[in-house]
Every structure is written in structure tokens, then in C-alpha cells.
Amino acid sequence: MTGTECFHAALNLLSETPNTGVYYEQFALRALNQLLANSLREINAERVFRAEQPFDAPPCMTSLTEEIPAGDWLARECFPYGLAALLVADDDKAKFNWAATEYAERLLRHCPAQLTAVQEMI
Q1: Tens of pLDDT along 38-68?
Q2: pTM given for the model
Q3: Rounded Cα–Cα distance for residues 39 and 8 (Å)
Q4: 114 Cβ partners below 8 Å, 6+ apart?
Q5: What is the CA angle 4-91-7, rounded to 5?
Q6: Residue 13 and residue 84 in contact, taking contact as beta carbons nearer than 8 Å
Q7: How far apart are CA 59 and CA 117, in angstroms?
Q8: CA-wise closest residue to 87 among 6, 60, 1
Q9: Confidence band of 23 (pLDDT split at 50, 70, 90)
Q10: Residue 102 CB neighbour total at 10 angstroms
Q11: Which of helix, strand or coil describes residue 95?
Q12: What are phi and psi of 67, to 5 degrees?
């Protein structure tokens, strides 16, 4: 999935079209790079599972025409919701909360194991 395809999917979730959502395009690349940075643990877990070398640093996209450097499940099922949330974070809190919750829930479906801090027992 390319960055443009992900952006269009995010616009669709926000009930926008490429024509009505032109304003958001200026933020899309930076938001996708933020999602890549936030998802480094999941990206690397999948790379290790596929016997590939994990990234030392989050991958970075330079244009929306590039393929998203993450697993297909992450790019197609999770990133449109995360991108939608980031695009409306300052404009519409209700849509932000909905999209961010969907992103987190979809991420958990694919990564059910969660790391928790060790707590001292007294």
C-alpha cells in the first residue's frame, strides 16, 4: 500500500474525498512517518518473524507515492485509522477519539501480547 492509498483510505474513514480533503494532504506524510515511528516495535516483530533484519531506527517515507515500509496487515488495517486520527486531532475530538480507538484495537488484534512493567510484590 502506498502512502497515497493510505491517505485516501483515511479520508474515506473521515467521510471526505480526495477533492474535499485537500487540506489534510499537507499533513499526511509527516503523520505517516509518525505512525511508522510509533509502530517500530510491531514492524520489527514482524520482520524478525519473517527472518529479516529488524530496523535500528524507524523507517521514513519521503513521499506519499512510496510503499509504506511496514507489513501489509499494519499498512492496510491499522494505518488508515491512525492516519485519520492524526489528521483530525486538532479539528474534531470525537472523530479523533473514534479513529484512535479503532487504530489501537486493530493493532491489538494482530499483536495480542502486551509488555507490562514488572511490579514488586510486597
Answers
A1: 999 889 988 888 899 999 999 999 999 999 9
A2: 0.86
A3: 20
A4: 108
A5: 5
A6: yes
A7: 27
A8: 6
A9: very high
A10: 18
A11: helix
A12: -70, 140
